[in-house]
Structures are given as C-alpha cells and as structure tokens.
Design goal:
- This is DNA cytosine methyltransferase.
- Keywords: Methyltransferase, Transferase.
- It comes from Streptomyces scopuliridis.
- The chain is α/β, with parallel strands linked by helices.
- It has a domain at about 1-200 and about 395-420: Rossmann fold (3-Layer(aba) Sandwich).
- The chain contains eleven helices and 15 strands.
- It has helices spanning about 10-20, 30-40, 80-95, 100-105, 120-125, 145-155, 215-220, 255-260, 365-375, 385-395, 400-410; strands at about 1-5, 25, 40-45, 60-65, 135-140, 160-165, 180-185, 195-200, 210-215, 270, 285, 305-310, 320-325, 340-345, 365.
- The strands form four sheets. It has a seven-stranded mixed β-sheet, sandwiched between helices. Strands 13-12-14-15 form a four-stranded antiparallel β-sheet, with no helix packed on it. A two-stranded parallel sheet has the order 8-9.
- Helix 3 (about 80-95) packs antiparallel against helix 4 (about 100-105).
- The chain is globular, with a radius of gyration of 23 Å.
C-alpha cells in the first residue's frame, strides 16, 4: 500500500487516483475526511500522533507526509520556528527508536509543531522491515532544515535522497506556491522532476525540451484567453519584481475576453455592478458554488470594460495582488484576514474630463475557484461550510505538483493534460 500521513482533503490522493493508484490516508479533520469520502478515497480518521504503525509494517511500498503547516506558515504566528530545536530533537530520538514526544510536547510553544516529527516515528518502524521503497514529503519552505535532517537519517538507511524548494508554478500549477520537498528512494536516484513551465516561455533547443509559460489564473479558471500578445509591457513588474512576465496582457480583462469570444462565465455567475449604479454589493444568481447550470450568464454594466480584475491574497497591507494574466500568489486561509478577493482596477487610463468611475466592490473568491487554482477538478466535492472548505484547500498539496513528484516512483506514464484546469 501507499501510506499517506496528514492526508487532508486529498492533494496526494487525487494525484494518485489520476495516475491509476490508490493510497490509504490518515487524517483527523472531520470535514477533510468527509471530502475524502465523497471523492472515493480510502481514509482512517485518526490522530496521526496516536495511531500505531504496526498495521502498516510489511505492507507499505510508498510513504507520503504533509504535516500541518500552521505552526510554520507565514499566515500564522510561526511558533514552529521557536519550537524548531525541540522538533529536531524529537526527530533525532525517534530515528534511534527513543520516544520522547510527551516530554518535548510539554515544552513546545505550539503543540502542532511536533507533528512535523511524526513521519520519523512511522519511518523508523517501517525501516525495521526494509520499507518503504520510496518517500515523498511536503511542507512550507521554513521546514527545509528539518527535511535535511530527515535526509541524513534516510541516507544512513540506504535511501537516495533529494531535498529542496520547488515552485508549483514551474509544474503547471496556476499559483507561485513554494514548498519544501523531500524525495527518497531505495531503488532509484532521487531527484526533482524536470520543470515544465517558466515565468517566460522557453523554446525547445538542442540542450533540452522547451518550457511553456506559467499558467495564468484566467487559463486555469476558463475566464478568457491571454495568449494574444499586446505590444506594450506594463509597469509594475512581475511576481518577484522586475519586468512584467506576461506581455500577453496584464491589462486584458474578462470583458475583453468575452468580446473576443473566448470568455466563459465565472462558475457562480457573479453579476458585477458599480456602486454608482446602485447595487451596493455583489449580487449572485443561485446559492454558493452549486449554482444550477441553467442559471443566467453574468450581466455587465455599461462601465464593465473599464475594469481589469486581479486577485488579492489577503486583507493585509502587504498582500500579494496579481492580475488574471498571471498565476495566483500562494493561497492560504484560516481566518478573515486571509480572505482572497477579486479586486478591480481601471483597465485603461480614463480621460481627465470625465467623471471618475465608481470602482466595483471586491468579490470574495469561491471555494470552487480556489480549488481549481490548486489544480483540483471544478467538481471536487468539498465538504463543510465555506471556512472549512477554504481551510482544506489552503492546506492541500496541489494535485498536479504531487503527480509530477510521484509518477517517477510509480513507474506509470504521466500526462499533465489529465489534470483539467478549466471547468
């Protein structure tokens, strides 16, 4: 079997399903378990820190782990960094067969910090019977030093190991999500998958295959093509500063796409109206993400073509803001300060002699949209209320990235086109 610790809503599991393989997930969160059940994934609802390893010994080929990141994430208080020496001590002891978790847990500032040491408890027990054949683990970038400690132990046990930081956008995910990755194998050289995408498209050459341009939010959501170049490069820079990476139109709008015949409706059919037109708030047809397919298409005001839409990652002053023609920033949720919203800005410079147009109100991202930006299918069965769904999505491994990581270990063909981004 393939054992998946902290399986969440199924990022690794959905990738394995597409690859024709199944795993057994251990997960505590009630709503994540309900999502997994609705998606047909095998799940044991349990506390990973309390569950015995014995049922899996002698049966485990692959091992996956994506410990909760809240203690380490920039979206939280990051007390995991304070607790890091205690986590390293726990890993060292567990690798030697000594369980000092209770003592160390009492000293942790955040009780979730020590969960990052749990994979070593399982790996030590499995190693006594020569398992698993391969390992893949994922966490936020600040956990990389811990992954390096794991790597040193696994090498002593006969594994080839690679650790490093990967950007999900380099593998076709419409999100510049950076994560610390550990890959290990007893039977092959561990190495990261070759990137398939780049900030700027790279043509094929004698030195290797080309790389497509990063996938934009517009492409992933099916909200309009951004592949028709415009002759100008907009000021303001790209995701990391510097030149605008997408001269194909950071000011191309949803409404222009509609006029070109390449636009498809936002999944919940938002009706955009300006304050000056008297709407006050966003009006919606239907309820939530389960709007009937027969609901009317979005209606646009006469001022709609003045606006270009971007995604704001949270409500903080330093929030990442990206136009639709770029990948999203890292999606993370958990409290109201981390709400992602679509915001409007003028698509073109307004004449000085005209009355300033009223800016449309921000529109909160839906769970369906957020899931698609994580490369889950548009119809993925998210369970729970909106907050519970967003929490599952923000914690998930993007399935498309997961498939790139896992396919070489499974010896199965992998076609990225199997992960349909747009609805």
């Amino acid at each position: 079997m393939i054992l998946d610790l902290f399986a969440g809503a199924g990022g690794f599991s959905h990738a394995l399903t597409v690859l024709g393989v199944r795993d057994v997930g251990l997960e505590w969160d009630e709503w994540a378990c309900k999502t997994r059940a609705a998606a047909g994934q095998l799940t044991i609802r349990t506390d990973v820190a309390m569950y015995p390893v014995r049922p899996f010994t002698g049966r485990t080929t692959g091992f996956l782990a994506s410990p909760p990141c809240q203690a380490w994430s920039m979206a939280g208080k990051r007390l995991g960094l304070v607790d890091q020496p205690l986590v390293h001590e726990a890993v060292e002891n567990l690798a030697a067969g000594r369980d000092t978790r209770d003592k160390l847990l009492a000293a942790c500032r955040d009780e979730r910090s020590l969960l990052a040491a749990e994979p070593m408890r399982y790996l030590h027990a499995l190693n006594t019977v020569g398992e698993p054949e391969w390992v893949a683990m994922e966490e936020v970038p600040d956990v990389l030093p811990l992954w390096k400690q794991y790597a040193a132990v696994l090498r002593r046990w006969g594994f080839s190991v690679w650790t490093g930081i990967l950007n999900a956008a380099d593998y076709g995910v419409p999100q510049t999500r950076r994560r610390a990755i550990l890959l290990a194998s007893r039977v092959r050289t561990a190495q990261p998958p070759a990137p398939t995408h780049a900030r700027i498209a790279e043509p094929e050459s004698l030195f290797g295959p080309g790389r497509a341009r990063w996938v934009s939010m517009a492409q992933a959501l099916g909200w309009g093509a951004t592949d028709r170049p415009v002759p100008t490069v907009c000021a303001g820079g790209g995701p990391g500063g510097g030149p605008e990476p997408f001269p194909s139109g950071s000011r191309q709008t949803l409404f222009n796409a509609r006029d070109r015949g390449t636009w498809t409706p936002r999944p919940d059919a938002v009706v955009l109206r300006s304050r000056r037109k008297g709407a006050g708030r966003v009006a919606r047809y239907g309820t939530g993400d389960n709007r009937a397919a027969t609901a009317p298409a979005p209606a646009f005001t006469t001022e709609a073509d003045r606006w270009s839409w971007s995604l704001r990652s949270n409500n903080q002053a330093n929030a990442t803001i990206r136009p639709l023609s770029q990948p999203a920033g890292t999606l993370f949720f958990g409290h109201r300060a981390n709400e992602c919203t679509w915001i409007a800005e003028p698509a073109t410079e307004q004449p000085q002699d005209t009355e300033p147009a009223a800016v449309p109100e921000p529109i909160r991202i839906t769970a369906r949209e957020a899931g698609m930006l994580q490369t889950f299918p548009a119809d993925y069965p998210w369970a729970g209320n909106k907050g519970q769904q967003f929490s599952q999505i923000g914690n998930a491994v993007p399935p498309l990235l997961a498939a790139h990581l896992l396919a070489p270990h499974l010896h199965v063909p992998f076609n990225p086109d199997d992960f349909t981004l747009a609805a």
